[in-house]
Every structure is written in structure tokens, then in C-alpha cells.
Design a protein that fits this description.
single chain; alpha+beta; 20 strands; about 25% strand; globular; binds adenosine-5-diphosphoribose; binds P-hydroxybenzoic acid
Length: about 400
């Protein structure tokens, strides 16, 4: 088989790239290790920045998002028993975020791909990337018991943190930066109305908590838990009880509990690979970087990588210019480091770290109070949360 761009991974990054390339008349094949159902079964954050919404519209898959997504113009911060609102819409001159689950978004992208009859090979096993340092890269894999090969112009590594693309880059050409946090997030999804109209980020003496949602009838809550915690040890009842202890009186009273649809523990990590290009192979999304979920930047960063990468491929094929491809890594990394910095800072501000003494809790409290009473402080949170402009600093 021959194609222009071989995309490895059918998560949001790979699917969105496939859709944008298709719109531009560029041929691509997507290879995915798992089944479509497995990909849809993963529960991840669901806060979209304006840049991400625009890109989904550009890809022609924004209809359900506009119909069912919830527009949020602010977030609430709870600390010292008090809630404070960050009016993001006012502070950023009218910007909002959209609450729309990654599962729904992935579903929309998969549907669009299927409707257009585009090639996705699910259950592609033992995917290997070859010769990306030459003009004729190849990808080999096994499917249905047969060994297959794709010849291509470019390889797009959209295969997530545990993918094969980054792992195949020459070690001498790659630098990796990593911080692993000493706690995880225990998440619970339930068909109960959200406790609040907007998200509540909680810094409590018992640890961080987050009240989020997927719709007006489906809630998503998180609790900071030690790295030693096991999900089997957390009954639904224990989860709700602990969440209540981290909330304020009003939220405690309003909280509607119910059986969990899903419950899991996710570790928190900051990770960046430099560069994101190795000859004719490009990394995008979680394959190149991971942020801790505080601030919900993961999906949005994947989307902005894909925006830059699709534009660069289009420029290559239409205008015979490689300027965009040559600039891809540097351009993405600027935005990535800004989001990494924000996610690390917001995580540090909101969590209890096991080695920190009482004084750090006091520092956090003072910082949060300062931020909530300073117009500049509020704006710093707001402009980062809604997403900095694509051309920031350029
Ligand atoms: N061969 C084929 N497919 C692979 C391989 C491989 N060797 N390794 C991984 N994959 C697939 C995974 O099964 C997965 O479906 O690549 C896909 C990567 O998808 P994601 O992990 O969702 O990553 P990405 O598309 O970059 O999405 C980024 O999703 O994980 C969240 O926080 C992240 O919200 C962000 C967004
Ligand atoms: C979620 O709804 O899953 C979510 C929302 C905001 C975050 C992280 C996760 O910062």
C-alpha cells in the first residue's frame, strides 16, 4: 500500500489530523493498535479551548459539539472554606471554554472518517516505523495474521505516550524532560446532575478535589489520592464521603450522589520530548508531551500540534514549501512549554505534596488569596485556562 501520510494512532490527535488532511485532499492511512470500542472506552478530560473548537469546525465535525457542549465563561476556586469565581469571559475580553467529553469528540471524528470511507486499520499489531531519515519512509505491521507494509512520504506519530514512534527515534537525537508527581487522581463518572453550573477546583487540607461534568445530567469528580491507593479499595460510598469532606457547606448540601459508571486512578506527569521531528517523522499529541490534568490542557495541546502539522503538510503539497515542516517542532514547543508551565504551576498550587509541611499550605493559601483579589492574578489564570492565542510570542 502507498499513501502520502501514514498516521500512527487513532486517538484525538490522529483522527483530527486525518480529517484535516482529507479536507485538503491529502491521502492518509491511520493505523491503530486497539479496536474502536477500546479507544472510545477511555475516559479523559473534556474542556475545549476556543482554538480547539475552531479546529473541530474547520475539520467539519463541530456540529454535535455546538449542539450538546456546555459553554463555560468561568471556573470556581474553593480554598479556606470559601469559593471564589474566576470570570474568564470578562477577564479575557469574551473568551469561553466548552465542556465536551473527549469520548464524544472521538466518536464524532470516528463517525466522520467512517462516513467518508477513509482508511483506518484497527488492531494493527507490531507497528514499526522505518527509514524516516530517508526520502522513502515505510511502516510495517501485522493485521489479520498477515504482514503488511505502507510506503509513504511522511509518518505522523500520534500514538500517545506509550507509542512506538517516539521510542523509535534515535536516542542521541532526543531530549526528554519529566516530572512525576507524588499522587494520583481518582476519578468517578456518574449519571447525576453536576453539583455546580461551573467547574470547582478545590484546595482542601485533605487534598485536591475537582467537580467537573460531561453534561447537565452526567458528572465527573476527582480526588487527589496517594500513589499507593488502589481503585478496588475505594467503594462509591467512600468516594462520595471523601468528596463531601473536601467541599464547602453549600456544595456538600447540593451534591447528588449515585452509582459510578466508571472509576479509575490516573498518575500525574509532566513530560516533554525535544524535538518533535526526526527526518520525515513528526510527533503530535501525547506522543510528544504529557501534562498533569489540572487545567485540562492535554487534548488542547494535541489539537494545536495537529493544527500546525496539518498546515505544514498542506504547505508542502500545495506550495512545495517545507517552511512549515522545518518550523513545526519549534512552533509547537513554544506553546507546549507555556501549557506545561501553567499545568505544573496550577497542580503545585492546588495539591497537598506529601513532603511539604504546614508552611507550604500557608503559602498556597496566601497565593490563592492574592490571586483572587488581584485583577492581574485573576487574568493570569483566566488567559491561560481559556488558552493563549496561537500566535502568542511570535
Ligand atoms: N501502534 C498503533 N497504535 C498505537 C500504538 C502502536 N504501537 N501505540 C499507541 N497507539 C494508539 C493508542 O492505542 C491510542 O489509541 O495511539 C493512540 C493514541 O491516542 P491518545 O493516547 O488518546 O493520544 P492523543 O491522540 O495524542 O490524544 C491526546 O488524549 O490522552 C489524552 O491527555 C490526552 O487529552 C489528550 C489527548
Ligand atoms: C474532566 O472533566 O475530566 C476534567 C476537567 C478539568 C480538568 C481535568 C479534568 O482540569
Amino acid at each position: 500500500m502507498r499513501t502520502q501520510v501514514a498516521i500512527i494512532g487513532a486517538g484525538p490527535a490522529g483522527l483530527l489530523l486525518g480529517q484535516l488532511l482529507h479536507k485538503a485532499g491529502i491521502d492518509a492511512v491511520i493505523l491503530e493498535r486497539h479496536t474502536g470500542e477500546y479507544v472510545l472506552g477511555r475516559i479523559r478530560a473534556g474542556i475545549l479551548e476556543q482554538v480547539t473548537m475552531d479546529l473541530l469546525d474547520e475539520a467539519g465535525v463541530g456540529e454535535r459539539m455546538h449542539a450538546h457542549g456546555l459553554v463555560h465563561g468561568g471556573i470556581e476556586m474553593l480554598f479556606g472554606g470559601q469559593r471564589h469565581r474566576v470570570d474568564m469571559n470578562r477577564l479575557t475580553g469574551g473568551k469561553n471554554v466548552m465542556v465536551y467529553g473527549q469520548t464524544e469528540l472521538t466518536h464524532d471524528l470516528m463517525n466522520a472518517r467512517q462516513m467518508e470511507g477513509l482508511a483506518t486499520v484497527y488492531e494493527a499489531l507490531d507497528v514499526q516505523v522505518h527509514d524516516f531519515d530517508s526520502a522513502r519512509p515505510r511502516v510495517t505491521y501485522r493485521h489479520g495474521g498477515k504482514q503488511e507494509q505502507i510506503e509513504c512520504d511522511f509518518i505522523a506519530g500520534c500514538d500517545g505516550f506509550h507509542g512506538v514512534c517516539r521510542a523509535s527515534a534515535p536516542r542521541a537525537a532526543i531530549a526528554e524532560y519529566e516530572k512525576v508527581y507524588p499522587f494520583g487522581w481518582l476519578g468517578l463518572l456518574s449519571d447525576t446532575p453536576p453539583v455546580n453550573d461551573e467547574l470547582i477546583y478545590v484546595n482542601s487540607p485533605r487534598g485536591f478535589a475537582l467537580c467537573s461534568m460531561r453534561s447537565r445530567t452526567r458528572s465527573r469528580y476527582y480526588l487527589q489520592v496517594p500513589l499507593t491507593a488502589h481503585v478496588e479499595d475505594w467503594s462509591d460510598e467512600a468516594f462520595w464521603q471523601e468528596l463531601k469532606l473536601r467541599l464547602d457547606d453549600e456544595a456538600r448540601e447540593r451534591l447528588v450522589t449515585g452509582p459510578s459508571l466508571e472509576k479509575s486512578i490516573a498518575p500525574l506527569r509532566s513530560f516533554v520530548t525535544e524535538p518533535l521531528r526526526f527526518g520525515r517523522m513528526f510527533l503530535a499529541g501525547d506522543a510528544g508531551h504529557i501534562v498533569p490534568p489540572t487545567g485540562a490542557k492535554g487534548l488542547n495541546l494535541a489539537a494545536s500540534d495537529v493544527k500546525y502539522l496539518s498546515a505544514a503538510f498542506i504547505e508542502h503539497y500545495r506550495e512545495h514549501s517545507d517552511a512549515g515542516l522545518d518550523d513545526y517542532s519549534a512552533r509547537c514547543l513554544g506553546r507546549i512549554w507555556r501549557a506545561e508551565r501553567f499545568s505544573w504551576w496550577f497542580t503545585s498550587l492546588m495539591h497537598r505534596f506529601p513532603d511539604d509541611g504546614a508552611i507550604v499550605a500557608k503559602f498556597q493559601q496566601a497565593e490563592l488569596e492574592y490571586l483572587m483579589h488581584s485583577e492581574s492574578g485573576l487574568r493570569t489564570i483566566a488567559e491561560n485556562y481559556v488558552g493563549l492565542p496561537l500566535d502568542f510570542g511570535r
